[in-house]
Amino acid sequence: MSINTDRVTDNVRMECSICHRQFTKPKALPCLHTFCEECLRSYIASNPDSEHARGGVPCPACRQTIYIPAGGVSELPDNPLALMITHNFIGQDTGELPPSYQTLFGEKAFDPEASDVSFVDNPSVAKLVHSFGSHGSNEEQCTFLSGLAINEITNEIVVSDCSLNKVTIFSLKGQFKRSFVCNCSIRDVCVTAQGTLLLSVSRSGSALLREYHSDGRLVGVYGSHYHYENPYGVAMDSMQRVVVTSLEKNMIHLLTEQKRPSINFGSKGSGPNHFFQPYFVTVNGRDDVVVSDSGNHRIKVHGLNGQLKLIIGGQGHREGQFFYPLGLCVDKWDNIYVADSNNYRVQVFSPEGQFLSSPVKKTFQYGADVKPTNIALFGDNKMVVALRGSKFCQINIYQFQLSAHIRSYGGKDGGNCCSLLCCFSPSVAYDEM
């Protein structure tokens, strides 16, 4: 199945929603919305929102708090696909893409008519077995998919919507079961060992977390010292200790199994022990903390004591690189699955950080701004991917056998820098980085 070029260009919003004109120097925000550089600069300068004083500003489209780099709007990454659409997607005179976009999706030129975008029969991608969900405000619908988790006790898929502040629960086959609305702002969700739902929250006093039964009954509210944290990602380790990311402080918080403050690590920056917009987090089988350091376009692995163990990626479009990675998870072998959102794909890495596969690619075939934003696994070979775009919300279930897609790799086979030891001296203490 090939992409219909007309459908791609028709489905994307081809103008900046601030100036309502064709994009000029389009800049991508971590919330995945795109605006002209000058429009963003003017908007930020005139925004009276209190978040601005602390370095944040609400996105003009979704109102999610966005933290601007220290160097200003110009340091936000360009949106290459929006640039291509601005150039009429295909060169008007030559029928070719502008040269600077020839390697947009790796070393091979981006070809909108390529035949390798099938979700079913092509062996290089996962097999789509079911899709469900839609955009809207009805009980079973979503408008801004954020959290995604599997409740292995009840065999259910749990989705959080940070726009409607709603938790929606589906069967593993995608059948709607129930939903409930929270009276606070919610972000990510994870499932406790008891089957309750733990949500990262804001506008809930000073609370960082809320715990609910799956029918919406409140179990507890946790965190009394986190009023300005703007928490997002949440996960639990094997001992039921809680890990929460902070977009405001650009750090990771660890809480005890009683959900009391323990330690935190990280600060704003691009160095090896810094974060910039760490959106999502998961914990592997060794109780290492795996973070999508979205603003730095990389994945980081830390021990529970904050010690840096691994850095994967950097900004780019080639295998092993990222453009605003968001949701992530690990399998029983500790392979890392990443929703590489602005590259419109899912990437899989070994526990050591070697690139293994891109089982889902080119999600813009659903619409040019449709991107994977979160991912979860269940069973032996089922992969759940949340897709979000302009007036688009959908959840796909894929069948994917990782062993069938692993390719051989070597330390110098064009791979990305993966191991901490190849970049930094092991003798350097955490606090010195």
How would you describe this structure to a colleague?
The protein has 433 residues and is mainly beta. The protein has 2 domains: 5-101, Zinc/RING finger domain, C3HC4 (zinc finger) (Herpes Virus-1), CATH 3.30.40; 127-432, TolB, C-terminal domain (Neuraminidase), CATH 2.120.10. The protein is 6% helix and 36% strand. The chain is built from 3 helices and 28 strands. It has helices at 5-11, 37-46, 80-86, and strands at 26-28, 34-36, 56-58, 65-67, 127-132, 145-151, 156-161, 166-171, 176-181, 185-191, 197-202, 209-212, 218-222, 231-236, 242-246, 251-255, 261-265, 278-283, 289-293, 298-302, 308-313, 325-330, 336-340, 345-349, 355-360, 371-378, 382-389, 392-399. The strands form 8 sheets. The chain has a 4-stranded antiparallel beta sheet with strand order 5-28-27-26, with no helix packed on it. The protein has a 4-stranded antiparallel beta sheet with strand order 6-7-8-9, with no helix packed on it. It is globular and about 50 Å long. The N and C termini lie far apart (49 Å). Mean pLDDT is 81; it is low at 1-12, 88-123 and 407-433. This is RING-type domain-containing protein. GO terms for molecular function: ubiquitin protein ligase activity; zinc ion binding. Keywords: Metal-binding, Repeat, Zinc, Zinc-finger.
Keywords:
single chain; about 425 residues; mainly beta; Herpes Virus-1; Neuraminidase; four-stranded antiparallel sheet; 28 strands; globular; disordered N terminus; disordered C terminus
